[in-house]
Amino acid sequence: MTGLALFFGAFFMLYALGMSLESEQGFEAAAQMLTESFFARLIAWGLVSALLYHFFAGIKHLVMDFGHCEELESGKMAAKVTLVVSAVSILLAGVWIW
């Protein structure tokens, strides 16, 4: 799910990048859109949230690829740690964006 969110959210970010590269006025409009628009901030926070969860889940899978946390109990603990670390990171990102 996070991979799909990042894929489709990239279109929004590419639109903002394209607008900012067109001209100085386009850059100012893109910067204003990303700083003042509630909807744009919500999309940015959603993208950062998906990226953070995807990152921490990927680290968990890399650890599992090396042979750690493959048992049921340790796998459940690793999943819980991933969720907690992701939730804290997402909340901190929300504070930073808003």
TrEMBL record:
Subcellular location(s) of the protein: Membrane
Record's keyword terms, sorted: Heme, Iron, Membrane, Metal-binding, Transmembrane, Transmembrane helix
GO terms for cellular component: membrane
CDD domains: SQR_TypeC_SdhC
Keyword Membrane in annotation: yes
Parts of the chain that traverse the membrane: 38-56, 77-97
Source superkingdom: Bacteria
GO molecular function: electron transfer activity; metal ion binding
Keyword Transferase: no
Pfam families: Sdh_cyt (PF01127)
Quaternary structure and partners: Part of an enzyme complex containing four subunits: a flavoprotein, an iron-sulfur protein, plus two membrane-anchoring proteins, SdhC and SdhD. The complex can form homotrimers.
UniProt record similarity statement: Belongs to the cytochrome b560 family.
Physiological role: Membrane-anchoring subunit of succinate dehydrogenase (SDH).
Name recorded for this polypeptide: Succinate dehydrogenase cytochrome b556 subunit
